[in-house]
Amino acid sequence: MKKNIYFNHDGGVDDLISLFLLLKMENVKLTGVSVIPADCYLEPAVFASRKIIDRFGQGDLDVAESNSRGKNPFPKDWRMHAFYVDALPILNESGKVETPVAEKPAHLHMIDCLRATEGKTTLLFTGPLTDLARALDVAPDIEEKIERLVWMGGTFREAGNVAEPEHDGTAEWNVFWDPEAAGRVWESKIEIDLVALESTNQVPLTVDVRNRWAAERKYIGVDFLGQCYAMVPPLVHFATNSTYYLWDVLTTAFVGNSDLVKVKRINSIVHTNGPSQGRTVETDEGRQVNLVYDVNRDEFFDYITELAKQA
Ligand code: AGV
Ligand code: CA
Predict the structure, then answer these.
(1) What average pLDDT does this structure show over 107-128?
(2) pLDDT value for 235
(3) How far apart are CA 266 and CA 309, in angstroms?
(4) ipTM of the assembly?
(5) How far apart are CA 37 and CA 30, in angstroms?
(6) Nearest protein CA to atom 19 of ligand 1, as residue
(7) Least distant ligand from the CA of 10
(8) pTM for the full model?
(9) Residues near ligand 1 with C-beta < 6 Å?
């Protein structure tokens, strides 16, 4: 039995690689894709998504554009990454783009996809939760059609990954971009699996990983991984604010193979205001979430590299 997955992403290198990997998972049926302009610019991220589906997928998907806006914008340098992926020769070889843009905006597109899909659907979100929060406000009935939400977001460590004026550094970026959206989703009854910085910190992009992909570039999908991860800075001597991790790719790998990680139940709240906005905190008063806190790093890299060889 294939799992139904609806994928909402925000066009970073690891978001777009996640789309590629989902298309290669034999146990996944991708029911819809949408793009939110958070850690990307919308146009190149939507083009790149359509071209990845053309090149590596098969038929009947469209890509919806989000018209959501966040409270705390991402740095421009990071948002530029989607332009580089969109320009890769491997995605432009055919000279045409066939996968259509959906008529409706992302949150309404997701509602339609959930309703039209038989049974329940797992939501995979690798950017902020704005489109889900809006969809729940418009159509609260969709909660029953949602199997669970798998989200790359949050951290319960002291340090988050936001380094911005007027913030205390405790938040993870996908929560920080729209803290109220996370707050809205926390109020729902949806089962939430959080792939937080606890586990993603264990899978930095390193030169070793790059070299492994370089050595196997005769496989077109492994070459695609290598080309994409040539665009972003690896961990060399120490982690900086721009160091790249495989945040979303780990989250996506968890959807395909939950044996790669360890999960524990905790209760948590989200700070929606002030200098800690976007911070997730463990507390008995909070709602229950399943926290992915540990990963088998070697098995994870083997898994995604093997998937890429299927391309
Ligand atoms: O906080 C991680 C999220 C993931 O969804 N994104 C990047 C991933 O797609 C934001 C982000 C944090 N640090 C970054 C980010 C960095 N150094 N470069 C680009 N994006
Ligand atoms: Ca992302």
Answers:
(1) 98
(2) 94
(3) 37
(4) 0.99
(5) 21
(6) 78
(7) 2
(8) 0.98
(9) 12, 14-15, 39, 78, 126-127, 152, 161, 172-174, 242, 244, 247-248
